[in-house]
Structures are given as structure tokens and as C-alpha cells.
């Protein structure tokens, strides 16, 4: 999805740079704390050179707790991304700190 927006804006894309390292189960069925625990170590950067020193934007379809975006950001920063921006298409109505 994000690569389409990048194409419209004339930005470079690397859609397979950040991939899931393991299955995390269906997050929608997990409690907030469990989501954060499940996402730890869930991603890896295939070729760190594609993000090192660059400004990177991660696009997510739905933001619920931020566990997925938080882990993706951490992983990209560890791989050397200079800046990690986040774009979200939809936001779940109940969001921190009110979410149970």
C-alpha cells in the first residue's frame, strides 16, 4: 500500500526491506500487553544498507496499540535508519491510555 503513495510522490521504495522474522499470531485477539510481547523481535531488515542513514516511512493499515509500529521502528533504527516516520491509514477508536 505505501509503495503506491511513494510512487505518486516520486519517492524511492524498498517494500521488502523490513520483513516479519516469525509469526506473531492474530494480534486482534491479543490483549494490549500481550501484543507488545508478541511483537518483540518479530521483524528484521533484510539489507541494512537499504535503510542505513536514510529517512524511512513505515505505513500501517490500522493502529490499535502501536505494538507493530513500535517494533518496526526499533528494528529500523537498529539497522541504521536516520529517521523513521510513521503513516497510519486508520486508527482504532479506543487508543491509549483508555484501552484495556
What is the compact description of this entry?
By secondary structure, the protein is an alpha+beta fold.
For the record, give the distance between the C-alpha atoms at the N and C termini, rounded to a whole number. 29 Å
> What Rg do the Cα atoms give?
14 Å
Unreliable sequence segments: none
Shape verdict: globular
**Helix segment tally:** 3
- Beta strand count: 4
Name the average pLDDT.
83
Written as H for each helix and E for each strand, in order along the chain, the element string is HEHEEHE
Beta-strand content estimate: 15-25%
Backbone structural class: alpha+beta
Q: Helix fraction?
A: 25-40%
Query: Which strands sit side by side, in order, in the main sheet?
Result: 1-2
Largest sheet: 2 strands, antiparallel
Structure characterization notes:
The protein has 100 residues and is of the alpha+beta class. It has helices spanning 2-9, 32-39, 67-78, and strands at residues 18-20, 43-45, 55-63, 83-91. Helix 3 links the parallel strand 3 and strand 4 (83-91). The chain is globular. 17% of the residues are buried. The mean pLDDT is 83.
Amino acid at each position: 500500500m505505501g509503495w503506491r503513495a511513494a510512487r505518486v510522490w516520486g519517492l524511492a521504495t524498498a517494500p521488502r526491506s523490513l520483513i516479519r522474522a516469525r509469526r506473531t499470531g492474530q494480534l486482534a485477539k491479543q490483549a494490549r500487553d500481550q501484543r507488545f510481547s508478541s511483537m518483540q523481535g518479530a521483524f528484521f531488515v533484510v539489507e541494512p544498507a537499504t535503510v542505513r542513514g536514510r529517512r524511512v516511512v513505515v505505513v500501517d493499515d490500522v493502529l490499535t496499540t502501536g505494538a507493530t509500529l513500535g517494533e518496526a521502528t526499533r528494528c529500523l533504527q537498529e539497522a541504521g535508519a536516520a529517521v523513521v516516520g510513521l503513516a497510519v491509514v486508520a486508527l482504532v477508536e479506543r487508543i491509549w491510555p483508555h484501552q484495556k
